Amino acid sequence: MSELKCVGKAVTRKDAIEKVTGSAEFIEDRFLGPLLYAKMKKSTVAHGKIKKLDLSKALKHPGVKTVLTGKDYKNKIGLYLVDRDFMAVDKVRFWGEPVALVVASTEKAAAEAVELIEVDYEELPGVFDPFEALKPEAPLIHEELGSYEVVPIFYPKAGTNVANHFKLRKGDTEKGFAEADIVIEKEYYVPQMQHVPIETHKAAAHWSPDGKLTVWSTAQSPNVVRQLLAKAFEMPMHKIRVISSYIGGGFGCKAGASLEGLVVPVAQKFPGYVVRIVFNREEDMQGTFTRQALYSTLKTGVRKDGRITALEYKMIWDGGAYTEYGVNIVRAAGYSSSGAYDIPNVKTDSYCVYTNNSIGGPVRGFGMCEMQWGIERQIDYIARELNMDPLEVRLINGMKKGSTTASGQVVHDVDYEKCLKTVADQIGWGKKEQPEKGKLRGKGIAGLVKCPAQPSNAASSAIIRINEDGTAHVMIGATEMGQGMLTAISQIASEALNIPIEKIDIKVPDTDFTPYEWQSVGSRITYTCGTSVKRAAEDALGQIYYIAANLLEVPVEDLTFDGKIVYSTKDPEIKATIREVADSCKKCTGEGIAGPIIGKGSFVPKNMTNLDPETGQGNPGMFYCFGATGVEVEVDIETGVIKVLQLATSIDAGKAINPQLCTVQLHGGTIMGLSTALYEDVRFDKGVMLNRNFTDYKIASIDNTPHIESFIIETPETNGPYGARGIGEQPMIGVAPAVANAVCDALGVEFNTFPLTPERVWRALKEKK
Amino acid sequence: MSEKITISFTINGDKETREAAVGQTLLSFIRDELHLTGTKSGCEIGECGACTVLLNGKPVNSCLVLAVELDGKELVTIEALSKNGKLDKLQQTFIDHAAFQCGYCTPGMIISAKALLERKPNPSDEDINEALSGNLCRCGAYQEIRAAIKDAAKK
Fold first, then answer.
1. For A88-113, what is each residue's pLDDT tens digit?
2. 3-state secondary structure of A102
3. What is chain A's mean pLDDT, rounded?
C-alpha cells in the first residue's frame, strides 16, 4: 500500500469546535416551534392487571390537550421479538412501565395532570429472578408469547417465560471431559447495570397536514427507528423522516427504538405542533434498557499441560419485562461462548428469561462483558488449580490465526498473544511489589474478544457529492455519539478521494437526506460505513478520471489526481484543475462531458452465515477484535478499599484510522469497565429499581479514575477499510475480570460477582479469617 | 400562569432585564428564555455538573439555582468563552488533547476548569480532581481532561 496521507493520522475531530463552544446541537436544542409536552404516568406495581384507569380529572386540568393510554397504539414494537407495548395494555409487566401519557401546553401542566390520573391494579405474583421464572408453576409474564412475531433465528417457548433459547454444540464435550485431567465447575453472577449517558433519552414528533411524520430523536440508529415506526404505525417509509443530532452518549441504550413512538399518535392528533418527550434521570435509568443480569455455570475440562479440552456453559439471563432486543444479546453471548479461546468441544445453552424487572437490552459489549467475566475468572481458577501462570494458560488456549470460535468460525487476522503480552509487560507481570503496611498488592490479566452482533445482512451505504469547487460532502446514516465516527469516516473519504480533509464536510444523519445505515452499534461503523464511504469515494474518483480523460483526451490509465489537479503521468503539462472537472465539465467546443459528480457506495457483509438451530455452528462474525487488560491493585485490609495502581489496556484495531481518537475510545471503554468493576450495580426490590440517580448509582468520576496506559495493536483486518476494525465496545470487556483477578491475587479470596465494593471485599476477607 | 418577577443581571458581559417565573430554575431560564443552549441538562438534581455556569465567578449547577436569584448578579455561560472567533485557551487544549467524546458534559467541564484556573493558575492533579469531581463524563475522557487543564495552565 502506498503511503497514507490522512488515515492513521491524529486529525482534529470534525465536531471539535462545536463541542467546546457549546454550539454543538444535541437533539433537544432542535425541538423548535409550537411545542407540546408529554409526560408519562408510570406503573406503581411490577406485575398486575389494570382494573381502572380514570383519566377524567387529568383531562380537565388546565393546559392539558390530551391523555393517551396503551390502547391508542394499534401494534406492538420490537427489533427482533415484537413483544413490547408502547404503553401497558390491560396489564403492567414492570415497575415504572408507562400506563398513560399526558400531553399539555407546558411541562408543568403535564406533570401536574399525571398526578390526577387514577389507576387501580390487581397485583399479580411477580417474578424477579429468572430461576423462579423458569419453574413450571411460575406466573407467565407474556401469556401471548406464542403469537408474537419473531425473527426466525430466535426461539421463544410459548407457554413459558423463555424468550429465547440459544443452543451451541461444537465437537463432543463428553469426549473432551474424558480427556481432561481436572474438571472445574463454578457459578458466576453479573448484576444489571445502566448506561447513564449524561444526555437522557429524548424525542419529538411533528405531523404535517400532508401526512408526513418528522421525528427528532436521540436514537443511535435513525434508519431502524424509521423501520420500526413504519411497521408499528402502518406507514410507508417515505412518509417518515427521522432526524438524529449529536448524541450525548449512547453505549447501546439508544439503539433500536425506544421512546419515539410514544409521541407519534399525539403528533397525528395535533398537526403542526412539535410534541416532545424528555426523560428525566430517574425515567432514563428505570424506563430504558438495562444490562441484563447473567447467572451462569461454567464447567471446564483441562489437561495438566493447561490445554482446555471441554467447556460447558449455561447462561440464564434476566431479560426483564420485554426482550425485543435482549434475545439477541443472549444469542451473541451463546455463539461467542468460548471467549478468546480455541476450545475444541463446547456445549452452551443460553436462555433469555422474562422477569418483572426493568427491560433488558443492549449495553456496550453486548453480552461479552457478562459472558467473558466467567471465562476470564475461570482461566484464573484453572491456573491456580494447575499451579500455572494465568498468562501462560491464556497463551496456550488463546485464539491464533486459523483457530475456531465456539460457533466453528475460523479467525484469520489475529494476534491475541501480542495483546496479552503487551499489557503483561506494562504492569510488570510476575514481579510482586512490596505493599504498604496494612495493604496487599496483586496483579491480574484478562483477555477479550468481540465481533459485531448484527443480522448477517446488516447493510450500509454512502453518497459523496463533489461540489463545483472540488470540495465534498459525505452523506451517511451513521450517528455521532462521541465515538469519533464523523472524523474517522471523513479521513477514509479523504484518503480514498485524495481530497484534503479540510475540504470535506460531513453531517449527522437525517433519513430523508442521508443514505441507509442499519445501526450505529456493535463497533461496526468504521468497518461498514467506512467500507461504503471508501467505495463511494472510489466511485467519485472514477468519475473524476473519466471526465478528465474526456476533457484532456488522454486514456484514464495515464491520469493521476493529487487532490487539486488531474494530470497525465506521461506529460504533467496535460492537466485540469478539480474545479474544471467538477463544475459540469465541458469541452473547449462547449459540448458538455458530464454533470455533477456523485459517488455512491454500499456494503453488506459477505462472510456471515446463519447458524444451525441445533448446534449454533456457522459464521456470525463480520470481524473479530481481540484485546487484553492488565491491572495492579492495592487493597486496604481494614477497609476493603481497592486502589488501582496500574491499568493497562491493549486492543487490536487492525489499523487505527485516527490513533488519538482510538486511544481516547480505549481509555473511555476501560474507565466504563472499571466503573462497573468497582461501583455499578442496579439494585431491585421486587422489581422496584432502588438506585435511580447518580447519588445512589455511582459511576467513575475524575477523582477516582487512575492513569491508563493504552496500546493499539495493528494486525490488519483483510477486508476492513485500510485494515481497520471497530474497537469501541471492546476495551470495557476485560476490565472487571482483570480487576477481580488482581484482587484475588492480592488477597487469595475469590470473587464470582462484582462490583468489588469495599463492603464486599471486606466481608470476603472477614470470612476468610 | 406562574407569577413572574423582573430581574436585572449581566449575561456574558451584557446587561439585561427580563422576567423570570417564580420557581423556574436558572438552567431553564438560560436555555428557554435566553436561548443559550450550550448549557446542558443531565440530571436536574445537581448530580452531574452538565449545567455548570459561573455565577459571580463561581461555578454552580444551574439546575439547583432559581432564576430569580440571578437578580443583580453576573452570569457567564460557555458561549462567552470564545471571543471574535478566538477560542479560550481551555477550549483549545480540550481540542488538542481530545478531552471529550460525545461533548455533552464538555461545556460544564470547561466552565468548572475555567473557575479552577481563576482560583489556582497552576493546579495539581489533586486540585483538578477535586474541582471537577462534580462533573461526570460517561465517555470517560478524564485522563485527557486532566492533561488539557494542565496544558492550559501553562499557556
1. 999 999 999 999 999 999 999 999 99
2. strand
3. 97
Burial class (CB in 10 A: 0-12, 13-18, 19+), A465: middle
List, as ranges, residues 89-148 from B with C-beta within 8 Å of A.
91-92, 94-95, 98, 100-107, 110, 128-130, 132-146
The predicted structure's pLDDT at residue A188: 98
Contact A394, A307 (CB under 8 A): no
Task: Answer whether residue A9 shows pLDDT above 90.
Answer: yes
A729 among known catalytic residues: yes
Q: Which of residues 518-577 of A touch B (CB under 8 A)?
A: none
ipTM rounded to 2 decimals: 0.98
Q: What is the pLDDT of residue A504?
A: 98
**Does any CB of chain B come closer than 8 Å to the CB of residue A263?**
no
Please give the class, per CATH, of domain B4-79.
Answer: alpha beta
Sequence ranges of chain B with CATH classification 1.10.150.120: 89-154
User: Residue ranges of the alpha helices (H) in chain B?
Assistant: 26-28, 89-96, 106-119, 125-131, 142-154
Q: What is the three-class DSSP state of A324? A: coil
pLDDT digits (tens, 9 = 90+) for A543-560: 999 999 999 999 999 999
Can you list the domains of chain A with their CATH numbers? 16-24+458-603 (3.30.365.10), 31-124+201-278 (3.90.1170.50), 290-454+610-768 (3.30.365.10)
End-to-end Cα spacing for chain B: 50
Amino acid A584: pLDDT:
84
* Residues β-bridged to residue A504: A472
Distance CA A299, CA A310 (A): 8
pLDDT at residue A296, as a whole number = 98
The Cα–Cα gap between A739 and A678 comes to 9
Give start and end residues of each alpha helix (H) in A367-435: 368-386, 390-397, 416-426
Residues A251 and A671: their CA atoms lie apart, in Å, by 13
Amino acid code (one letter) for A206: H
Residue A474: CB atoms within 10 Å: 26
The low-confidence residues of chain B, meaning pLDDT below 70, are 1
Q: Which residues contact A37 (CB under 8 A, 6 or more apart)?
A: A103, A104, A105, A106, A107, A109, A110, A275, A276, A277
Stretch 194-233 of chain A: residues touching chain B, C-beta under 8 Å:
195-200
Q: Dihedrals φ, ψ of A540, to 5°? A: -65, -40
**Residue A222: cis peptide before it, omega within 30 degrees of 0:** no
pLDDT digits (tens, 9 = 90+) for A303-339: 999 999 999 999 999 999 999 999 999 999 999 999 9
CB under 8 Å to A314, separation ≥6 — which residues?
A296, A297, A298, A348, A349, A350
Residue bearing cell 475460523: A410
Looking at the predicted structure, is the pLDDT value of residue A2 above 80? no
Rounded (to 5) percent helix, strand, coil in chain A: 30, 25, 45
* pLDDT given at position B107: 98
Which residue in A has a C-alpha nearest to residue B43's C-alpha? A281
Give the residue from chain A lying closest to B109, CA to CA: A20
| Beta strand spans in A536-624 (E) | 559-561, 565-568, 575-577, 598-603
Name the E strands within A131-273: 162-170, 182-190, 202-208, 212-217, 240-244
Q: Which residue has the cell 504498604?
A: A436
The DSSP letter of residue A86 is: S
Fold held by B89-154: DNA polymerase; domain 1 (1.10.150)
Residues of B in contact with A201 (CB under 8 A): none
Q: Does A72 touch chain B (CB under 8 A)?
A: no
Question: Considering A112, A324, A370, A729, which one is annotated as catalytic?
Answer: A729
Query: How far is A25 from chain B, CA to nearest CA, in Å?
Result: 8
Note the pLDDT of residue A585. Answer: 83
